[in-house]
Design brief:
Number of strands: 0
Structural class: mainly alpha
Strand content: under 5%
Distance between the termini: 69 Å
Shape: elongated
Radius of gyration: 24 Å
């Protein structure tokens, strides 16, 4: 609401820019959230944090005294900072994948795992917290993880083998990730349930059927 107020009229915008010009090289306006734009909420919060002191100064103008309640308290800024830390890694991975100019198929499993690990870490850190905003954030991240799981489940049935093969073909990865899965779940690599055993056999079968048999 404060961002909307600052950008509401040319007079508001110009006054806000003037407050910044004496202290920073590049003056900017608040960002208004766009729900359909990826990472827009994080960008809004980062910009708000950058402009927090200027917003405080702007609200000192008697003309805007009735809007001073819109300025966040220190506790609310703490919440904003925490949310930014939670969301920041997710933006890194979405931008990292979308802006690369080469094949990224062999990174898909790793990226999903990094995002799951990050969310699990946040959930673990917040699990025993009793403060209301931390409980709210816990359930928000929990539902976000469920959404991510749904996306992953929709990917793996149809392209799971392709993702696994691409991952194994990567000389920097091969079977390392699946070995980590076995270790994390206390599975013996020699067991039938072992990820290494299953994926290695699937890999060799695919190469035998699709490559060796056709090029003897």
């Amino acid at each position: 609401m404060l961002g909307v107020l600052i950008t509401l009229t040319p007079g508001h915008r110009n006054k806000f820019i003037d407050f910044q010009k004496l202290k920073v090289r590049i003056a900017v306006h608040p960002i208004i959230d766009v729900k359909t734009l990826r990472n827009s909420t994080l960008e809004l919060l980062e910009r708000a944090d950058r402009l927090r002191e200027f917003a405080r100064e702007w609200l000192k103008n008697p003309k805007y005294s009735e809007y001073r309640s819109l300025y966040k308290t220190e506790d609310e800024w703490t919440i904003v900072k925490y949310i930014m830390e939670v969301v920041l890694p997710l933006r890194y991975w979405t931008l990292w994948m979308s802006k690369r100019h080469m094949v990224t198929l062999h990174h898909v499993i790793t990226v999903y795992n990094h995002m799951f690990d990050h969310m699990d870490g946040v959930l673990q850190a917040l699990a025993e917290k009793k403060t209301q905003w931390k409980e709210d954030l816990y359930f928000t991240v929990k539902f976000a993880r469920q959404k991510l799981s749904k996306y992953y489940a929709e990917v793996t049935p149809t392209t799971g083998m392709l993702l696994i093969l691409a991952h194994i073909f990567d000389p920097f990865r091969k079977l390392r990730l699946f070995r980590k899965w076995d270790k994390g779940m206390d599975i013996n690599p020699e067991d039938e349930t072992s990820y290494i055993t299953q994926y290695q056999e699937a890999f060799l079968k695919y190469v035998g059927n699709e490559y060796c048999a056709k090029h003897r």
